[in-house]
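Z., the sequence and structure:
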Amino acid sequence: MKPTTISKGFLFAGLSNILGVLLFSKLFTNTVLLETQPDVMGYFGLISIILWGLAYIAVRKSYQAVPWLIAVFVLEKCIYVLVYLQWLTSHSLAAVYKQDMLAGVFYSIYGANDFLFGVFFAWVFWKVLKNKGA
């Protein structure tokens, strides 16, 4: 994968976080999304997700210089995936869809989204370390 493609991956990850939060939360007014998993997807959590998105975008041109920050991104994505799986095994997606379609879609895809970007970040981390000879 070319560096420009990787850079676009970081941009896409960031925009996914930022625009995803703004869209699915209906600009922080979707009470179903906010209340379904309040510890993770409440106001503070959604703002944090936007900040992570800004961090991904901030390193898109300099990711090769910060491999251990990319490792932090991998860890962050792993945590979100684990929390999502824990939530998914003890809650009903159908109940969320019944209350709000956008919230239902959000809770259907956020774990897979985080998993895929986690794999991307892990691959970039491995590639950068390999190229540095570390």
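Residues 3-129 form one domain. The first helix runs from residue 3 to 24.

Let me know what you think.
H.
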